[in-house]
User: Fold these one by one.
Assistant:
Number 1:
Amino acid sequence: MYWEKQLETIPREELSLLQAERLKKTIANAQRTSFYRRLFSHNKIDPEKIKSPEDLKFIPPTTKVDLREGFPFGFLAVPLEEAVRLHSSSGTTGTPTVIYYTASDLDRWTNQVARSMYAVGMRKNDVFQNMMSYGLFTGGLGMHYGAERLGALTIPIGAGNSKRQIWFLKFFKSTAIHIIPSYALLLAQLIKAEDLDPRQDFNIRIMLLGAEPHSEETRRRIEEIYGAKAYNSYGLSEVNGPGVAFECVFQEGMHLWEDYYILEILNPQTLSPTPPGEVGEIVLTTIYRDATPLIRYRTGDLASLLEEPCPCGRTHRRISRIQGRTDDMFIFRGVNIFPMQIEKVLMSNPEVGNNYRIILEREDYRDKMIVEVEIKPELFLGDLQKLARLRERIQSELHSEILVTPEVILVEPGSIPAPEGKVQRVIDHRQL
């Protein structure tokens, strides 16, 4: 059951001591960066007094803005010649963020991902097809190296090119795949268009879902379509990439590997700790990375802490699935709404297909929300009254969930553009 039993089941008291030891080394290492030297000096922080996770509250959080302003070397804690790789954000909205890795950093990251994959049942005899982008995006290479560390036959096919994906799945009998949830639903449609059955004609048993938030209803739908177990994972490039937190076989929240990170979940407005079960922003401190240490990094991701012990016996605390982001929330008529709330309602209806989009417009100075929903093709062969009742039911359920009433438009499958990469669910024309 365990990749590293001693570390995965370490008593909480010993884990706290390990975190404190690694935190002190991280603080010392962070002082080698120009950013943290200035931060400590400006806030009159004595690094020698930061000795335990409880002391982190005296340090202001680090943000993505800080990373961008520190471009390119402001967060580098080792001589550049000791760094062997960098990953970067796209930079499409401004200066990119850049994270550097030493060889030791990469080795630790690889082990962290291998531990995560092992926790969901991947083994040496699996064939792993990695459907994520390679390159500056961490998702592809991160999972790739983890799978190889496990000893699994690894197919670095990358994203897109669906016909080729299907051919490799069938010919090499891939048993484990890494895939974006929205693409998993699209790929299933394309498989069926080839007169193939995702359950009967393939050997997939493990699906690692990542790169975009998704609801529990979406996960269960994917599992039903493929006849495989779909596992939720969490990662972000700033604190390594995939493998920061991962579900185990029990699928009851994601274990965040606390020998690599110190976890805080804070109220995004007040930065005060949120109690277990209450949604807040994930804030992480890296404690096992040399090249780019980050202290109290505000991820922008929203989740809650699950306090109950996991049946698997791992002692690392679990977080819920990502509930949204502080920056993908949109405000509609004064109400804060996350796309995940709408997805939850749509995917709980069996008549709904695999694609939808949310369009925000402004008419006569008043906001308007349109939810376009693909539904099963056979429903268009029935009577119009049945369609009208379905539309009204979805509209009512959405109102109950988000407290406002959107316009719901039912469309045929394939009507909504379905990109093979990360899907854009919200189109906000109000900003134009």
Note: The chain has eleven helices and 21 strands.
Number 2:
Amino acid sequence: MEKAISQQEPGHHRILNALGDELGLSWVPWRLMLAHALVRPLPEDMAGRLRRIVYQSAGVKIGPKTMIRGVLHLRGGRHAVRNLTIGGDCLIYPPSSIDCCAPVTVGNNVTFGPGVTIITGTHEINDPCHRAGALLPRPVVIEDGVWLCLGAMILPGVTIGQGAVVAAGAIVTKDVPPHTLVGGNPARVIRTLETEVRV
């Protein structure tokens, strides 16, 4: 039975929904695809606020003053957009990749260096005939003031505490305490960071 299309929907939504149903692509995040198409031609390190506005229009929750310096690579299918929340006054450098199978919450004043990867999906490994079994989505939380350096990778279910720094190339497999510097593979605490603001 064909999907009933509400007469309340705007015309372009009806067209996209009908096209998606006909092609078996009803799960495609059309607004996100359009956002990518609009921001891709923009030079990197320019138009960071414009990118934020475009991605907000696609449904991504992004706070004020956040700067996105390139294409925001999101994975996780049709729910990727609604599973991502980015706070205010953040700075995100490309090419960063965020897997949004589960919610990803980024606080305020967070910096993503180039090549940061956040992963929320892992798999059951029970079946000896197919080790990558059923998807197990686990949320990731990046608290206020965090700096994720070049090439850092955050694995499913991890919380990065307030004011922490994840060193370049680190692979974070467990929670990071607030105001600590972690590095390595797997990441470990290197030292505690100062919490007093220098004047």
Note: DSSP finds three helices and 19 strands in the chain.
